[in-house]
Amino acid sequence: MVEFKYSNVEREMEVYGYDSVVRSHCRNCHGGCGVLAYVKDGKIAKIAGDPDCPVSHGTLCSKGLASTQLVYHPDRLTYPLKRKGPKGSGKWERISWDEALETIADRILAYKKEFGAESVVFGYGTGRENEAVIYRIANLLGSPNVLTAGHFCYGPRIATSILTCGTNPIVDYENHPQCLMMWGNNVVISNPDCYKGETFSVALDAGAKLIVVDPRLTRAAARADLWLQLRPGTDTALALGLARVIVNEGLYDREFVENYTHGWEEFVRRVNEYPLEKVERITWVPREKIEQAARLFAETKPAAIQWGVAIEQQNTCADNDRILLCLMGITGNIDRPGGQVLFKTPPIHNVGKFGAHGMLSPEQAVKRLGGDRFRLAGRFAIIQPKAVWDAILAEKPYPVKMLFFISSNPLMTRANAREVYRALEKVDFMAVSDFFLTPTAELADIVLPASTWLEMDYIGDFWKRHGRLLPRRKVVQIGECRSDHEMLNDLAHRLGQGPFWWETFEGGLDYILRPMGLTWQEFKKMDCIRGEVKYEKYKEAGFSTPTRKFELSSTTLEKMGYDPLPQFREPPESPVSTPQLYEEYPYILITGARQPGFFHTENRQVPWLRELHPDPLVEIHPDTAAKEGIQEGEWVVIESLRGKVRQRAKLFAGMDSRVVAAQHAWWFPEKKDPGHGWEESNINILTDNAYETMDPAMGASSIRTLLCKIYPEGEDKS
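Request: output the structure for the sequence above.
Response:
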């Protein structure tokens, strides 16, 4: 039994008559927060933050607090379903788990025999820390095709970090950064990946200087010492301008640059291609602010960059990540206390080992969809979604016959949503595992009821780079719901993969922990395990790159045929790249700002969270609203070359009047038709997925920056 250090836990149990309290680890968004789940009469009565958690220190966001409403929601899927009638008919019948998994296994084996294992595509979205099991079953089957968000979310940070310095550098908040640069991120809302907004806020309260790079005036930007309000999609140019100031004013860390970097001279030549007059013209950021920010970041020690997904959902995805890594490196903030640290995980079988990547044959690996075009993505087993839609709709380069989506709703989250719909409608067979019947699940043949994080045992955060492992302990069982891990372990046996799996998935947890000599039963009694914390490791062993140095110029990218240095490219649609289109669509549309209650497409049926965000909102500058005849709170039409959607107008002066900002991933569970209003406000109706608009290395879809017109609903301006 885990002991509680805080006596109020025992007091609350006594006062409110709780039967027990379970310490666990939330995964209602990116994960990491410690929770206390209070149980009464066999049900979860309350969720609270765990003050003893070394990651979140008792804090918890609205999504974590509302987890009980998710778990016990009356619309939860609690048993497997089989479609009756045409796709999207909304007609289902209850079936057993045995029938569901046997049907799925039979289909997989039949397609593998007739069309090859590559004709079966597995996919996941927000992730329930299930990526390792999904890759394991796919690789052992022989399918190189796992469809993730990795082409434009987190995957590019991992890929470019490995090329540059060996692993993803994490902000060392424990050692008090004195300067933070928040770039394309709003950590206090999104709590992304390896971070929690609480540690960022504590650092600011302790006096850290703050630079924010964002087109919108966020709460963090309002608190910043410097806010760089750039034109959307020009991040690489701005960062190259900052680097130019640091290089030419001699503000870089000479000892680190001279002894531990590769490609310095080439890097200097590249940044000098970006004089500040040019950068100001491209980015709309005054050169004086660029100079101030560069000096503040370079001269304040230690400093770190809090970066995020907004810079990755662009056609300059890999270059955005690479140039920010370069800024970390040349200022000497890599692997130093309070800077950006290359943390080590405890000795475990990590995601790569668990995912059985080494067991996919070279003959099958070369069949990865889009791998020949997006070579950096292919190197990390990441595929571009459009390559899957093409393989379904046009059967090129070969036919994809089956999709199996797990915790993913691509109809709402992938570019060019109408093409996604056509592909999901056409594919021979589709299975979906989720909490609810989402717009994507409504097009499936089999739907499986997934467990939430409160309904499973797991090793939390074992895929992250902050170096900690925390036990996620099962609290309740809901209906026939199963975790993705248990479900795939069962399915794998039916596919003939039994020797590579376990009798129950507890064996998989034991396998992850085996290098430490621990079992799951032993680990679940512990609070946390942390890898060895050691700084400036490169002084002893160098960096895990081909040159053993921090690669400002990437030897790996060069061998792949890409520019080894970061470069700026105009967004596919912009006042500069498409001036004639800009005349007809005179506003720059940015998408994807996070809302506290939602995790991409999730939680719109959870009462507490939907109350926070009842309708989709598009932010419009008051001057723009006046020009277009738009009133606060009215429904407006946002239109691009590809379609129209409707959202409510919110007047917001914290943006340039040439920019509008719409919310993403909106659907309406309360609409009882099978589509749940998926077309009504889905911003990805407007986004493009043409190959020429994507990042050439990662295949990132440029969904954050496009051109639009906006007008009151009822006025036809087509």
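The longest strand covers residues 643-651.
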